[in-house]
Amino acid sequence: MAGSPLTRRSFLIVTASGIVAACSGDATSAPPVTTASTTTAAPTTTTSTLPPGPAFASDPFRLGVASGDPASDSVVLWTRLATDPLAPEGGMSPESVTIGWQVGADETMSDIVASGEAVADPAFGHSIHVELEGLEPARTYWYRFFVGDWETEIARTRTTPADADLADRLVLGHVSCQRITQGYWTAFDDLATHDLDATVHCGDYIYERNGSGIRTLDIPEPTELAGYRAIYAGYKADPSLQAAHAVAPWIVTWDDHEVENNYQGDVAQNGSETPDRESFLARRAAAYQAWWENMPVRLAAPVGSSLPIHRGVDFGRLVSLSVLDTRQYRTDQACAANDVGPRCEGSDGPDFTVLGAEQETWLSDRLASSDAVYNVLQQQVVMQQWRLLPGDAAWNLDQWDGYPAARDRLFDDLRSPDVRNPVVLTGDVHSSWVGSLATDFDDENAAVIGTEFVGTSISSDGGLLEPIIPAVLDQNPHLEWAQATRRGWTRHEITPTEWRADFREVEDATVPGTTVDVATSWVIPDGGAVVRA
Ligand SMILES: [Fe+2]
């Protein structure tokens, strides 16, 4: 899905369709998000048929393309220029580059419905975010970028159903945790063969520590912007990841490794290279900017060390998706020497938070006003209870188990009869878990509030958890099933009467090209608890 030399054939298509540049971004005076309306009527005059930009001696689209944050009339198109992904600044010289983009009504791009130019600014890693407007709901579109003598392959995206519509069927991909050094991305190859309405990514898109493993990415652990950019370039140059981006819009949140393992708000992990608050926040600012530059998100460019990313994506009346951030605002687990132990003093009080006050209020209001059949939380850390040992001596404090009062506050919202079918999609632990969210996790007869699907990793190793699975399933009666040895992704097929989750597992992610099969399937009937299909 990287680019290729612009052919005479495609250039003639551009000319024949009579493109009018819809608008161009000016990254020097505003956040580099380009808003463009579609050209619905045939233009009467033809302008600007030449591809913009300088001549590149090699492909500047080595990082592929992506789309994301779909709405009923809009989607964000993304690319980032890099002629040599692992070279400093991706091999790019420090000048702005104007590139062209097109949106087509069919996969041959013979019917162009929108086009324009955008500026790839070196201040933002030569990334482009084009925010389209005026698209039709529940419709597939195709798009490409071009610059100089180069064009990208044609990629596919899709808008969401109109607000009032109840779709017959939606299909979502659910992925997380793609440590490049621990495996091949066969799961993405498989995902790319599916017709998806969107892919949701629950975080750990990159890892800050790489090096040698099943694959090698020889970039030191970063603390500054250039280093984070280099890691994204190393990951995004992978053709399997590019193929997965090219078939559907992605809705992305982050977890910890986009900055540093298990950081908590403004507090670095133990043993951090940036241990004090000031140096950690400078590092966080660099990491957040690099994430923004590399993700197809409908967010203004970051300023400083904070970047609010919680947002809603609605698929008509069938699915209301809330994208959460459980890292940036959480209370530090200052009592804990490591992740597992007794809960910290105060964690059962109102001051301990996972989401932070503003995000909590936003989510509470959003849930209260939803009329969707399924209310979905896309988030990072496990929400189910995992009692690791009998008694209260061992909880994973990085998960919601470390924040019981915050979880209770969220459950008070989710258990409202007005909030139908809560479904939580989670990543982080490199293993698959299916379970109910319950009013009392220790009472198997307690009322069920909703369902959590924890998706296994794309490639990150999770095998360390396998030995504890039998005991955790035994000590937590709301948990139904788990596995930690296999990598993969989860395909969710949603209709007005049923949610079906297929856990697609890779035979062996440590060698390329092994088979992918459905290991198990689970169903949530409308208004009911999850059951094995
Ligand atoms: Fe991870």
Question: Could you please describe the fold and organization of this structure?
Answer:
The structure is a single chain. A hairpin with a 2-residue loop joins strand 8 (140-147) and strand 9 (150-151). This protein has 8 helices and 26 strands. The strands form 5 sheets. A 7-stranded mixed beta sheet has the order 13-12-11-23-24-25-26. It has a 7-stranded mixed beta sheet with strand order 14-15-17-19-21-20-22. Strands 1, 5, 6, 8, 9 and 10 form a 6-stranded antiparallel beta sheet that branches. The protein has helices spanning 8-17, 186-191, 225-236, 239-245, 277-294, 357-368, 404-414, 469-475; strands at residues 4-5, 33-37, 65-68, 76-80, 97-104, 112-120, 127-133, 140-147, 150-151, 155-158, 170-175, 198-201, 250-252, 311-315, 319-323, 340-341, 374-378, 395-396, 422-426, 432-438, 448-454, 479-483, 488-495, 498-506, 516-525, 531-532. Helix 3 (225-236) runs parallel beside helix 5. It folds into 2 domains: 4-158, Immunoglobulin-like (Sandwich), CATH 2.60.40.380; 170-532, Alkaline phosphatase D (PhoD) (Purple Acid Phosphatase, chain A, domain 2, 4-Layer Sandwich). It is globular. It is 16% helix and 26% strand. With 533 residues, the chain is α+β, with helices and mostly antiparallel strands. Fe (ii) ion binds at residues 177, 204, 257, 428, 430, 460.
